[in-house]
From TrEMBL:
One of its GO terms (molecular function) is metalloendopeptidase activity. Residues 1-28 are annotated as: Disordered. Keywords: Hydrolase, Membrane, Metal-binding, Metalloprotease, Protease, Transmembrane, Transmembrane helix, Zinc. InterPro entries: Cell_wall_metabolism_enzyme, Csd3_N2, Dup_hybrid_motif, LysM_Opacity-associatedA, M23ase_b-sheet_dom. This is Murein DD-endopeptidase MepM/ murein hydrolase activator NlpD. Residues 141-209 form the Opacity-associated protein A LysM-like domain. Its cofactor is Zn(2+). Residues 366-462 form the M23ase beta-sheet core domain. GO terms for cellular component: cell envelope. The keyword Membrane applies.
Length: 504
């Protein structure tokens, strides 16, 4: 067992070893290392215990020892280094001199001519009308764009305007419909005074009409300003490589204009199955501009489409009754007289048959139409232009609509859940007009449309009947149509021939 005894701090220590019977060689080596470390520590402390920069003079006279010289040398060296660095740093931070003063001189400008002054005034007025000149009248307008599900009352609340002011506008009955028929994206501008009261409301009634409603103590005053529209005509030519929309984009057309192209030729070309790589199209279309700014897509004026080696043409034409349709180059309407299927269906649940087992009655009966299975509420459209012969309830059919198309054709739509709003007997309907919704009224086991096609009262299979071709334009209309479309047709043909297109 080892015991250590430390005496006063004079470097002396007594180490007493009392070996134990069980001590080993490893423990003896550990004790020897410990004694050596203690001796080194005490020797260092005995040398350094009197180090100090200041001495007690009363105890011993001032004398310079080795440690004093070391500390003094370090202090002197530090002082010299600082002395060398500081002047250089001071010169680096010193300003090179005062910045010379700038003198502004007022130079007389030549007077503007009357024409130049008038042009500047007009330009300034135009900027003010656009709300781009701070401090002028239009700078006070606050623009609000209608969001989905938002009403005009919500906009008034967001702007901190009182509902009383909205009611005042409604009661004035000035362009009242504009407040009830707002759509996402519509823009309203508000002019609000310093007290937070509405002074004026501005909105576009349509593309070319702007309305400003001004409020004062005497009431609400309406100002209507006409805004000129400009239609700029473009020609695009494309070739199908992967898809119609990719080709339209490469030709510089927007997706919506490409969709209009597909709709124009949709009666002749099935773009889901018939489109081929290498098919080409040429389109003459326009864009709508207002005050030099592009407002929206316009219309397709004329187009040709070569699909699988077959050439189709389409020209937009408004007839004497104001009906706008697409016609081929010989004046025949592109849309067929009848839609092949008047509903977007999920599957055909029962086909036309001379005899089938009725799912409700449980006996064999002829099925004189086609059943299109679809969810309840799916829209049903008129297959062609017609007069409503019957609208009501019939046994077996449930809610049913019967349309008479001219003299010999009629169509039947059965098992409707409800009729379209406003539909009544004797009413005229257009092809594609909503007439009702899919249901399962009458003898039906599930929601579907029972559709029949009759010629002179005889039932025909709607899936295989040869649909009549639409009648061409009357002679007088046809002459006018050809006069308008011949120049466009010549231009389209030039783009179809690559050599002529390059020459152009």
């Amino acid at each position: 067992m080892t015991r250590l005894w430390y005496g006063p701090f004079d470097g002396n220590a007594t180490v007493t070893d009392s070996p134990t019977p069980h001590s080993s060689r490893r423990s003896n080596r550990r004790l020897a290392l410990r004694r050596r470390a203690l001796r080194k520590h005490f020797q260092f402390y005995s040398k350094c215990k009197n180090w100090a920069l200041a001495q007690n003079v009363s105890v011993s006279p001032i004398s310079w020892r080795r440690e004093h010289w070391v500390l003094a040398s370090v202090a002197v060296a530090f002082t010299v280094i600082v002395g060398m660095i500081m002047p250089t740093w001071a010169r680096a931070m010193k300003s090179e001199g005062e910045v010379p003063s700038v003198t502004t001189l007022s130079l007389p400008l030549p007077a503007l001519s009357a024409d130049a002054q008038s042009a500047d005034d007009k330009a300034l007025a135009g900027l003010a009308a656009a709300g781009m000149v701070p401090g002028m009248e239009n700078d006070a307008w606050k623009i609000a764009i209608v969001r989905t599900g938002q009403s005009l009352a919500d906009i008034f609340h967001e702007l901190g305007l009182s509902p009383t002011e909205l009611q005042r506008l409604v009661n004035a009955n000035v362009d009242n419909g504009a407040f009830r028929r707002i759509h996402p994206g519509d823009e309203f501008a508000f002019r609000i005074d310093g007290a937070g009261k509405l002074q004026a409301l501005r909105f576009d009634r349509d593309d070319h009409t702007r309305v400003v409603l001004r409020l004062d103590a005497s009431g609400v005053h309406s100002e209507v300003a006409e805004r000129a529209l400009e239609r700029r005509v473009h020609v695009a030519h494309g070739s199908i490589k992967s898809s119609l929309f990719e080709a339209g984009d490469s030709a510089g057309m927007t997706d919506s204009m490409t969709l209009k192209l597909a709709q124009a030729f949709g009666y002749d070309i099935d773009f889901a199955q018939d489109l081929r790589v290498g098919d080409t199209f040429t389109v003459i279309y326009n864009d709508v501009y207002r005050e030099g700014e592009r407002l929206r897509d316009g219309d397709i004026i004329g187009a040709t489409f070569i699909n699988g080696g077959r050439r189709f043409t389409a020209f937009r034409y408004e007839d004497g009754e104001g009906t706008v349709s697409f016609y081929s180059e010989d004046g025949r309407p592109l849309k067929t007289s009848f839609l092949r299927t008047p509903v977007e269906f999920t599957r055909i649940s029962s086909r036309f048959s001379a005899g089938r087992m009725h799912p409700v009655l449980g006996k064999m009966r002829a099925h004189k139409g086609v059943d299109y299975a679809a969810p309840t509420g799916t829209p049903i459209y008129a297959a062609g232009d017609a007069k409503v012969e019957f609208r009501g309830v019939k046994n077996g059919f449930g809610n049913v609509v019967i349309l008479q198309h001219g003299g010999q054709y009629s169509t039947v739509y059965g098992h409707m859940s409800r009729f379209a709003a406003g539909l009544s007997g004797g009413q005229r309907v257009r092809q594609g007009q909503l007439i009702g919704y899919v249901g399962m009224t009458g003898l039906a086991t599930g929601p579907h449309l029972h559709y029949e096609f009759r010629i002179n009262g005889q039932h025909r299979d709607p899936l295989s009947v040869t649909l009549p071709k639409p009648e061409p334009l009357p002679a007088t209309e046809l002459a006018k149509f050809k006069q308008l479309t011949q120049p466009m047709l010549a231009q389209l043909k030039r783009y179809e021939d690559p050599r002529l297109a390059l020459a152009k």
